[in-house]
Design brief:
heterotrimer; A alpha+beta; B alpha/beta; C alpha+beta; A: alpha+beta; six-stranded mixed β-barrel; 16 helices; C: alpha+beta; six-stranded mixed beta barrel; four-stranded antiparallel beta sheet; 11 helices; 13 strands; 49% helix
Chain lengths: 440, 240, 407
């Protein structure tokens, strides 16, 4: 019977091509617009590391006087989004989590052995070895450096696949060296593509940006005086001057993540942090009780408002647009179905039950919805192309359709259209079978 | 077959109640060919819509093929309509999107027959109205008389117990009308029970019996005085 | 025209009329809010930096390794750049307008650490800063070469003199007598004298979400020469020679010394396009959505009205037979549409204001200007009239003879 309804639907749609085209266009355009923005929105708001987002935690420590009024960054609790070097080192030494790493964003100049390539600057992340296993960074070749390299301030490096392709044509480069600012670093591994979006572990610059091109031990980076490329914020005191003075100041510029697998671990870590803060006050480093905050990945993303206002506005606008499109389709369907009330009355007179009419009309709207969904998908791809042309690369990187997006689009179209078709369909079932006789 | 006793149908508009049918009784036996006549507004059409289960009535009893239809729900009424009643409308009411065969197919679909059974019945029904060759044509490609024959085939296809015809020749010219009437008479001879609503006395006399409705009531159950009982037979003779 | 018969007829088509009215309402609500946003973003992206941008470009230079002779190298680079015939002037700095990167300072009028300070962007510039950027000095004087201090360590040197923007000057000294007065800076922990005031110098963080929008024109120029392994060379080309000098400048620097990395060379107009790309992109997207919205709504009106016309052909024939003129029929449908659209627009105005209020609270957007609501309402009313015209004309062409025929 469903096949019969499908045949009837196609026939009926073919009969009034203009109206059918208008309906499909309305739904398609609505779906296209809303899916385009939804794709962006979803990419911004996705959990970048879903299997671990509740086990990875980052912290804030109130190491600045809480009554400072000029501070341009920071939240209503006067907490900064990053921590300073003294705290980072103290926490690393305490080693209280299952895994932990202090890290920062900087850059090194790569001087390629191949003299065809000019020296170039490459974004570099300074981190401890736990970074890789904590975040499940995939490796093409080799593996993370051993913890001893952190302790020994070794000149070792993990290249990204991209950089390895550029320098070694994608060959296994483990064991070779690469010249960074005039020093030879031994390559211990090559990481595979790993670009969590948003880049949760460092949201200070380029929230949706790419992961750095290489990784070196944090301790080595400090020795090398690797310049901070991210945000470097101070409360007005730059310390005693020079690199040493700067890193030992209360300026904040380090991200710190810790892996805490169980709720008990989290509770323990919280009390450890609280004790640490109290201890700092006791030893006279602070004249105030420093606040400490521990947040997991999801909480951290929410705290940092990673979904931009623009994306929210666009989603709002485009879903209102979809709503208008559906009202539109509903009106047209109503016109179409009521224009056929004669046929419906005849069918009723010939013994069609209300259910049969309902199914027939619903099949028709679902067919329209499906066609609209397909058109919408096409328009979504176009829309994303448009976004890529219009928006910055950082945001464009988010605009890829995945299978989930496609499924959502088609489902959204069919469900929305069917919902919009419910009223006209219901009206169709109310057509009196005696209508034909009376109309004469 | 069709038995209405003291049936009433009232339309309520705000305060006034208007009776379209009142104390209406009729009994049509199996195999009868009954003409229902009456002036405009007498309640002919209301009678037909109630007889065909297209509308509910407000009082009295109605037995269709022994089934008391009072208070049946919409689904049950649809089912009964589909199984027991064949409709022939003045305006044919073919579905323009569907070809002849598919039009005849409509009630069979709702009956739930399988494909082979539906094909057989479509073939038979179109054969009986002499349109076997036209199964793939669309209604718009046929003459009025042919369209009404398709409508009759559609009414017959489900082998209903009762054929209800509403001014079946009203939209046709004389010659086509005659053909359709001959077809109805032939069906009657083959055993069909037919109730035909018409305002045309010439058609009415060709039925076995005429029921005259005035102001929603049956006024005269006697055969028409103007008679000519041979009319039916003569037509039948020319028809063969 | 008597609206009663129209209203009476509409009651029989309630749902269709409601559908159109709701569409118009939502369309109006989105339309005026979107137009408002578009206008804001476009205005935002056109704000002046205070620089004469057209002929200015920036070379991002970095040195390989950790050379000891940075100051000599940088002086050499600047001399080489200035020696190019198409170059007017050049200087080295930590930051420049539209760059989206730089430093902030907390500034005030005295050294009391408990007094609230004002945030300001910090630009390093020698005497070449003002002419290279093309800033307008409205009071006081430029820096002199002797005032220039090399900044070659992580600590910030003292700045005896500063040049600030008029806005900052007015904030520090509301009576307008900032020139010659002292200004304190949080990081240098010393007092500086305000020796010059420029009309305008925008901070580097200017996109809609850039936090610099809170202190857009608060900038301080300090007479520092950045002696560092990375820095920006800001260069002014002679009119018409921007593109050629951008290439020539890079080549020249590599000719002077190859042991460097030039990350990018871009003009201020390019920087402007890049920094405002998302703002302009949003404006374009919203514009496209508005256009699509209006199209869909008008097609919806055409579709439903056509259906009503088809449904009422007989009725229209009868009206015509009874003496209605073609214009009368057209006017009937126009009036009907006007009634529906006006109802929709009335609801839409309320909806638009509600939507705006919600956006004001959740996105910190300003209040909607009522002009947009009025303009939007006019647009949807006119759109309705335009959309209804074709079906109305079709209705008017129904022959009166239709009345005599059967349905």
């Amino acid at each position: 019977m469903l096949y019969y309804y499908f045949g009837l639907a196609v026939r009926s749609l073919k009969r009034n091509l203009v109206l059918t085209a208008l309906m499909i266009a309305a739904i398609g355009v609505g779906i296209g617009a809303s899916m385009t923005t939804l794709t962006l929105f979803r990419a911004m708001g996705t959990d970048p590391i879903p299997h671990k987002s509740r086990q990875l935690w980052t912290m804030q420590i109130g190491n600045w006087p809480p009554n400072k009024v000029t501070v341009a960054t920071g939240d209503e609790e006067h907490l900064q989004p990053q921590i300073g070097y003294p705290d980072a080192i103290a926490l690393m030494n305490a080693h209280r989590g299952r895994r932990q790493s202090a890290m920062y964003h900087g850059g090194r100049t790569v001087i390629p052995a191949n003299s065809d390539l000019k020296p170039f600057e490459a974004a570099t992340r300074a981190a401890y070895t736990d970074f890789f296993r904590m975040f499940d960074v995939p490796f093409v070749y080799g593996e993370p450096w051993p913890a001893s390299d952190d302790a020994n301030h070794s000149e070792v490096v993990v290249l990204s696949r991209e950089l390895n392709d550029k320098l070694f044509g994608g060959a296994n480069s483990v064991g070779k060296t690469v010249d960074l600012d005039g020093k030879n670093f031994r390559i211990v591994g090559v990481s595979d593509r790993w670009n969590p979006v948003p880049r949760f572990f460092d949201l200070n610059t380029d929230k949706y940006g790419k992961t750095e091109q290489m990784f070196i031990p944090f301790t080595t980076a400090i020795d090398e005086q690797m310049e901070m490329w991210g945000n470097f914020n101070c409360d007005g005191d730059l310390g005693t001057g020079g690199w040493e003075g700067r890193i030992h100041s209360e300026c904040v510029w380090i991200q710190y993540w810790v892996e805490l697998p169980t709720a008990a671990d989290v509770a323990q870590y919280r009390s450890f942090l609280a004790n640490y803060a109290t201890e700092q006050r006791r030893t006279g480093r602070f004249h105030w009780q420093p606040l400490v905050r521990l947040r997991n990945v999801r909480e951290w993303l929410a705290y940092n408002h990673v979904v931009s206002d623009e994306a929210r506005i666009l989603v709002l606008v485009s879903f209102s647009f979809l709503f208008v499109c559906l009202l539109n389709a509903m009106g047209l369907m109503l016109a179409k179905i009521m224009g056929r009330s004669g046929d419906i009355a005849v069918r009723r007179a010939l013994g069609a039950s209300r259910g049969a009419i309902f199914m027939q009309c619903l099949t028709e709207t679902a067919v329209v919805g499906f066609a609209g969904g397909l058109l919408g998908l096409g328009l979504t791809s176009l829309g994303l192309l448009g976004l890529r042309a219009l928006l910055s690369d950082e945001i464009s990187r988010l605009s890829n359709l995945d299978t989930v997006d496609i499924t959502i689009a088609v489902a959204l179209a069919v469900v929305a259209t069917t919902l919009a078709g419910l009223y006209p369909t219901w009206r169709a079932t109310r057509v009196q079978p005696a209508w034909q006789l009376k109309a004469q | 077959m069709l038995k209405m006793t003291h049936l009433a149908k009232a339309y309520r508009t705000e305060v006034v109640e208007t009776y379209a049918l009142r104390d209406f009784s009729i009994d049509v036996r199996e195999g009868e060919f009954v003409a229902v006549t009456g002036p405009s507004g007498s309640g002919k059409t209301t009678f037909l819509t109630i007889a065909g289960l297209l509308e509910e009535f407000t009082g009295g009893e109605y037995l269709l093929d022994g089934v008391n239809v009072r208070g049946l729900d919409d689904n049950r009424r649809s089912r009964l309509r589909n199984e027991k009643i064949g409709f022939i409308f003045q305006a044919f009411n073919l579905i323009p999107d569907l070809n002849v065969g598919d039009n005849v197919d409509v009630p069979l679909r709702y009956r739930g027959f399988n494909a082979a059974e539906r094909q057989r019945r479509i073939r038979d029904a179109l054969g009986r109205v002499g349109l076997s060759a036209r199964a793939r044509h669309y209604p718009a490609e046929l003459s009025g008389g042919q369209q009404q024959r398709v409508a009759i085939a559609r009414a017959l296809a489900g082998a209903p117990r009762l054929l209800l015809a509403d001014e079946p020749t009203g939209n046709l010219d004389t010659q086509m009308a005659r053909g359709v009437m001959e077809l109805l008479e032939e069906l009657h001879r083959d055993g069909a029970t037919i109730v035909m609503v018409t305002h045309d006395p010439e058609l009415a006399v060709r039925a076995q019996r005429e029921v005259h409705i005035v102001d929603g009531q049956v006024v005269d159950l006697a055969p028409p005085p103007r008679l000519v009982t041979g009319g039916g037979a003569a037509s039948a003779a020319t028809g063969t | 025209m008597d609206v009663y018969p129209i209203l009476a007829a509409m009651r029989r088509n309630k749902v269709g009329a409601i559908l159109i009215a709701v569409q118009i309402a939502v369309t109006l609500a989105i339309l005026c809010n979107a137009l408002f946003l578009i206008e804001q973003r476009v205005a935002l992206s056109k704000r002046p930096t205070g620089a004469d941008e057209a002929d200015v470009f920036v070379i991002d230079n970095g040195w390989v390794g950790q050379p000891n002779d940075l100051e000599a190298r940088i002086d050499g680079d600047l001399a080489a750049l200035r020696s190019l015939p198409g170059v007017v002037d050049a200087y080295v700095t930590n930051s420049y307008p539209l760059s989206d990167s730089g430093s902030t300072e907390g500034v005030g009028t005295n050294l009391d650490p408990n007094r609230p300070l004002t945030l300001a962007a910090l630009y390093f510039a020698g005497p070449q800063g003002i002419p290279t950027l093309g800033l307008k000095l409205v009071a006081g004087r430029n820096f002199t070469p002797s005032e220039v201090v090399a900044m070659n360590d992580y600590s910030v040197p003292k700045a005896p003199v500063v040049i600030i923007t008029r806005q900052l000057a007015d904030k520090l000294y509301p009576r307008g007598d900032a020139l010659g007065k002292p200004m304190s800076m949080q990081f240098t922990k010393g007092m500086s004298t305000i020796v010059g005031i420029v009309d305008r110098l925008q901070v580097p963080w200017v996109s809609a979400n850039g936090w610099g929008s809170k202190f857009n024109d608060n900038s301080v120029m300090v007479p520092f020469k950045l002696v560092w392994h990375g820095g920006h060379y800001v260069v002014r080309a002679r009119p018409g020679q921007l593109a050629s000098m951008m290439r020539a400048g890079e080549d020249k620097l590599f000719a002077v010394n190859r042991a460097r990395v030039i990350d990018q060379v871009r003009s201020l107009p390019q920087a402007r396009a890049e920094i405002y790309r998302d703002d302009r992109g949003l404006a374009v997207i919203l514009g496209v959505v508005c256009a699509a919205l209006l199209t869909v709504t008008s097609f919806g009106i055409v579709g439903l009205t056509s259906y009503w016309v088809a449904q009422r052909r007989k009725q229209i024939g009868i009206r015509r037979a009874l003496g209605a003129t073609r214009q009368g029929i057209v006017r009937y449908f126009q009036t009907e549409n006007l009634l529906i659209a006006a109802t929709g627009a009335a609801v839409g105005v309320a909806l638009a204001i509600a939507l705006n209020l919600w956006m004001v609270t959740s996105f910190e957007l300003p209040r909607l200007h009522l002009g947009y609501v009025v303009a939007g309402a006019l647009v949807v009313l006119l759109l309705g009239q335009a959309a209804v015209l074709w079906p109305a004309l079709r209705a008017a062409s129904v022959p009166p003879a239709l009345a005599t025929r059967a349905a």
